[in-house]
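Cross-check.
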Amino acid sequence: MKSLCVLGLGYIGLPTAAMFANNGMQVHGMDVNQSIVENLQKNLIHIEEPGLKPFVIQALESGNLTISSFVEPADVFIIAVPTPFKKDQFGEYDGKKYKLANMEAVTSAAKSIVPFLRKGNLVILESTSPVRTTIDLMIPILETSGLKAGVDFYLAYS
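Predicted model, tokenized:
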């Protein structure tokens, strides 16, 4: 494993990207929010977390962490995008209502990986997701690449 692409540079994705970069990996962080991308490219951190700013700046200045608004080829892809609750939409189980997660960002992230997916790659879904998301949502999308999950590439949930 030599390279990593982190999709989503929020409270989970940005520290994760910086941690790997500060430990010698080549990491590409991407986010669809152009303001976040532009600020990070100027060493401006959009998250208030003690110690995070110098940690991220160290990763950026080392050259091990690059930032853009697009996916790049990598050995490992980590999806760390938001999964907010849907407004006024509920599921029901055992007579009880529960809120449904909006999986649009996860779906979009998975689709954006497909053109770059190669044999031996690892895709990790880090976003908080409902049970079976990797099986029922991610696998069908990623297998449009022509590769088979568990045979040609690996898929995990963290």
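Residues 114 and 145 are 5 Å apart (CA to CA). The first strand starts at residue 3 and ends at 7. Passed to J.P. for a second look.
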